[in-house]
Design goal:
The protein is α+β, with helices and mostly antiparallel strands. It has two domains: about 10-80, Arc Repressor Mutant, subunit A; about 90-235, GAF domain (Beta-Lactamase, 2-Layer Sandwich), CATH 3.30.450. It is built from eight helices and eight strands, in the order ααααββαβββααβββα. The strands form two sheets. It has a six-stranded antiparallel sheet, with helices on both faces. Strands 1-2 form a two-stranded antiparallel ribbon. A hairpin with a 2-residue loop joins strand 3 and strand 4 (about 125-130). The longest helix is centred in the middle third of the chain and has 31 residues, at about 80-110. The termini are far apart. About 30% of the residues are buried.
Length: about 240
Amino acid sequence: MPRKSAQPSLAERNAAPGGAAAVDRALSLLAAFRAGDARLTLGELAERTELYKSTVLRLLASLEHARLVQRGADGSYSLGPEVARLHSVYAESFSLEAQVMPVLRSLVAATRESAAFHVRQGDQRLCLYRVDSPQLVRDHIRAGDTLPLNRGAGGRVLLAFGGARGAAHERIRRAGVLELSGDRVPGLTGISAPVFDGSGALAGALTLTLPSERLRVEFAPAVKAAARRLSERLGAARSL
């Protein structure tokens, strides 16, 4: 077992509070790559991270398995294809934000109620973007919060247009918009419609939430129209 160095490594000096030391060390290896670095040798990685070469090798084995790094024929290392995939997801999130937020702001301006964009995340839904109502009484969900997939208008729309079977889901698909009161929170109404991307796939659900006593008949058509407008911004040819 290698002796512990008297000099703490870069990862130890910048450890995440409450984090895992092994993860900190692995991330320090990825951070060792700088602009212009096509490949780094084992020695260069050890020098930049101030880790033992034996430790670097073990960490690289895990990173290589995850396709975060790849080993060349000469034994040097470069960033792997998974980094490119993550970069693509990261870049796309900013592109999506630029399309979603103006539609949410416009819907909030027209209705004075809160609007959000939800995406499915496993058995839950994630509030990806949100614009709050200017009124004091409103729900207090924030971007980044997760909500049940089987409760609330947004979740049920994601299920229905994600291919869920059953008469209830079929009715949602036919209507193209869903209005529910008290389904997730008593006294709260949600109105949601699906959003599609350029390939015609379900991109998410656009949802308006408001206290039930402020519900107006024109809100459901407004949500459906906003969802259609956002779908068009994302390149979808499908209309509901």
